[in-house]
Amino acid sequence: MVDAFDEKGVNFERAVPDVYGDAHPKGLLKTIQEDGEPLKQLSSQHIISSDQFDQDVLLQLFRLAAKFEANPRRFRTPLQGKILISAFYEPSTRTRLSFESAWHRLGGDIMSITDRSTTGIAKGESLSDVGEMFNNYGDCVVLRDNYESSVHEMMRSLRIPIINAGNGLDEHPTQALADLYTILKWKPELVATGDDKADPIRIGVVGVPNQMRTVRSLLKMFAIFPETMEEVVVICEDDPGAIFDTGQLEQLTQAGLNVRVTSDLDEELPKLDVVYINAIAWKGDGFESYGARYVLDSKSPLKKDAIVLHPLARGEELGVDLDGTPHNWYFSQARGAVFLRMALLTCMCERIERVMDVWM
Amino acid sequence: MVDAFDEKGVNFERAVPDVYGDAHPKGLLKTIQEDGEPLKQLSSQHIISSDQFDQDVLLQLFRLAAKFEANPRRFRTPLQGKILISAFYEPSTRTRLSFESAWHRLGGDIMSITDRSTTGIAKGESLSDVGEMFNNYGDCVVLRDNYESSVHEMMRSLRIPIINAGNGLDEHPTQALADLYTILKWKPELVATGDDKADPIRIGVVGVPNQMRTVRSLLKMFAIFPETMEEVVVICEDDPGAIFDTGQLEQLTQAGLNVRVTSDLDEELPKLDVVYINAIAWKGDGFESYGARYVLDSKSPLKKDAIVLHPLARGEELGVDLDGTPHNWYFSQARGAVFLRMALLTCMCERIERVMDVWM
Amino acid sequence: MVDAFDEKGVNFERAVPDVYGDAHPKGLLKTIQEDGEPLKQLSSQHIISSDQFDQDVLLQLFRLAAKFEANPRRFRTPLQGKILISAFYEPSTRTRLSFESAWHRLGGDIMSITDRSTTGIAKGESLSDVGEMFNNYGDCVVLRDNYESSVHEMMRSLRIPIINAGNGLDEHPTQALADLYTILKWKPELVATGDDKADPIRIGVVGVPNQMRTVRSLLKMFAIFPETMEEVVVICEDDPGAIFDTGQLEQLTQAGLNVRVTSDLDEELPKLDVVYINAIAWKGDGFESYGARYVLDSKSPLKKDAIVLHPLARGEELGVDLDGTPHNWYFSQARGAVFLRMALLTCMCERIERVMDVWM
């Protein structure tokens, strides 16, 4: 936290570094060699689910995000002349601004829809017709909707790529990308080759896998790199039999991920290298907070070098007294999410040749 | 309609061409010779009503729209440095995004007002004062309002040009421009000279002329080219004496347009070259749908080469089973509307010299 | 007021000049010599209160605003690549568009939040966390909120500069800057040196100093140039003991400002050189209008050369029959506010070297 604020100036000097690991994008840049080939798969691709990714695409995507994050002012114009349709039918500011900031940083233009009730949908228009309309107006769509099926319906007529920014309880793939990107910024040796390779880590996930799209997408993302994870411990108070949808856990274990469920947070914490916590679940037409049940703060028995992640916004479940400690990687997570989205959008909108050092 | 969608890619190959007549802007380009002189009239002009146009201005405006549509990426910067005030006091997404896309494509900047209740008008401010304010903030205004008089009140103090994007039940001139532009893209020979000139066509309009501003503006637009139309058949279930405002029908017939009213759609269809259908009428503070009464779908007895137009959004009145047929020109209509608006805005904002091949 | 409007064209010729004193920015340019040194103080500064300014900074800021106003099309790119977060949690159009227009004119990009209920704040997120989020997304924040403390809470974590665009009943410093800028455009000799120096003026302020943030900020701004003011007369019907907060009047008089309170407007008017009137006070969750009690119109006994200021929007308190008279400087005030904000934003975002003739 900042020292007593000074009304006469912006605080550039802070008692503790504000975003841990600013130098770590460089670590990731050194660990992964640039190779544009896997990124070609992303050209004009719809990004709907964590299922769509493999290790090669992810490593290059994270490397590109790290390149943006290490040189925030270098790439100004990749998306010049491109229009983003930012359609947030479910309330959001954080994710919407994250995408819009990414698009602006790349030199593109934006049209926003933030109120479902002013759209043709309010007049009974089908989502397929809305997609057909978007084809004429923009070059890319970002959609958040509390109905799981909306993005799929819209895709039936879309000829421009779309990113699912959250569809009901289903998925939120770019958040999961940002989360895994943060872990690899923190410990790029997890994906190093040879003697540099780090030992697998133990990750705790405080949340409800079938009630939180962030958690659903994140667990799938972990299952793409199972060899880097000793174990993923889901920490949840609910009945273990009720917290996974049919087939959800099996998909993870079949990919080689070790998943264990427990309800005792403080017992697990001393063994966890990464602690991910989320407390808000979308319940139909409102938010339900699970925050009161689990709390992470400076009194929690965290491992000395453990890092904490949270997709934000946070409530009582994540204490502000952790903000000034080295455990705080949730601010780095929020910061990196913009660069991750810049990397993804550049690839999707077929402008990647403008940012690669070598492109064929 | 698209084949089963592929989550891993955007569909560029479709079972049927998605927008019929993509090549037809070129037909219009050949038929009309470029002449910038008539377009000078549009400089700094308010666009309020279809009444303002004559044949010369329309032909050149449509030609310019066709030039944009045939070369979507060629003109990037005509409106650079210009600010659009996009004021949609009545709910809309389609028209708002159509204008905003057009303005972005031309390199300009946009400020949006989508909620009347946050404006000074909520504090009791007069529209004349709002216009005076807009003079200081932007270079062009697009206004949609459910009160017919709003655009006229605002014009009293505006020194920047304004486009009426729909004022109550009164007019929606740019929609009518887009509609007629589509008809001439389909059959440019209607305005050819000499031996190439096509025979007049028969147009059906399914709607209520004094309850739908799209229809009101469109009929006036037809009356500018009466020699191209054998007959305009208004298809409506209401009492013929109640569907025109005082003087509305007379204005059309005095201009030389042949107008007939009937209620039997399927009887008229086999004789119609163009079928225009709209089902939504704005009724004070909500939409009333006329959709259930008339339906156009693949079972309708359409002439083989007939085209169907609809301003969209559509409901049950226009069947999705028509989307994949050659009758579908409503998607081309939506696509062309952006280019039509690009052409109009370029002329209004005095940047036309940047897009003409020859300009004096 | 404009002559009968002409539907076929924008009115450039008006019966009376529309904004008095268009040439006066040039008067201010001649009176004040350009000196960039005082403006360095504004780099990355939060602008929260009129208290932050002194004479040197103000004179150079006003000179820069005059430079922009005298050459509206000259400076296109100072803020290129910079992103503004325009957060209006309290309803506004006028101030929001004024800032957004200023930012667009300088070549920057904008992200708008106009609905508090869609933000994380609705999910219980702290304003400090919102500030941390904004650090990642933009380069500058403009905030209006009906809670006085919001801007202070947000500043605790912000590392990018913020402008207070109105915080409850507290302050609205950029409005006061625009108001004083207008007075100096009208009579730059007030700040001349030597023989050119004008006699001090008498200013009337119709409003309630502790209920209107515009008035609170403006009186403080006057207190920075007490030698230019013979007297400031607060005209208010309320009990004089109830219209100032504790210490509010003392701060003004200690700075050397002569302040008198009266309730009789028409008695004061013949002696006033500048009349400022505002009638809207924000009362918790709605506007309360004081308009009915005082009225300024063409029948008011104004001094021949007196000028009238009003932050707008106006109601019955300011008659439209004054609009076409030389007393009307409220339109010039609105116009100049955009240029004033352009000057301030350029300095805050460290781009001032792009607009100074001499910069070291």
Q: How do the helices and strands line up, and which of them pair or pack?
A:
3 copies of one chain form a homotrimer.
Chain A: H1 24-31, H2 55-70, E1 83-88, H3 94-105, E2 109-113, H4 127-137, E3 140-145, H5 150-155, E4 162-167, H6 173-186, E5 201-206, H7 213-222, E6 229-235, H8 248-254, E7 259-262, H9 265-268, E8 274-277, E9 280-282, E10 287-289, E11 307-309, H10 330-348
Parallel strand pairs in A: 1-2, 1-3, 3-4, 5-6, 5-8, 6-7, 8-11
Antiparallel strand pairs in A: 9-10
Helix pairs in contact in A: 1-2, 2-6, 2-10, 3-10, 6-7, 6-10
Q: What tags apply to this protein structure?
A:
homotrimer, 360 residues, alpha/beta, four-stranded parallel β-sheet, 15% strand, globular, disordered N terminus
Would you summarize the structure shown here?
Three copies of one chain form a homotrimer. Chain A has 360 residues and is of the alpha/beta class.
- In CATH terms, what is the fold-level topology of the largest domain in chain A? Rossmann fold
The biggest beta sheet of chain A, please? 5 strands, parallel
User: Which two chains share the most extensive interface?
Assistant: A-B, 39 and 39 residues
Radius of gyration based on Cα positions of chain A: 20 Å
Structural class of chain A: alpha/beta
Which CATH class of the largest domain in chain A? Answer: Alpha Beta
The amount of helix of chain A comes to: 25-40%
| CATH superfamily label of the largest domain in chain A | Aspartate/ornithine carbamoyltransferase
Order of helices and strands of chain A: HHEHEHEHEHEHEHEHEEEEH
Low-confidence stretches of chain A: 1-6
Arrangement of strands in the largest sheet of chain A: 7-6-5-8-11
Hey, roughly how much beta strand do the residues of chain A contain?
Answer: 5-15%
Quaternary form: homotrimer
Based on DSSP secondary structure assignment, what is the total number of beta strands of chain A? 11
Mean pLDDT across residues of chain A: 89
Number of domains of chain A: 2
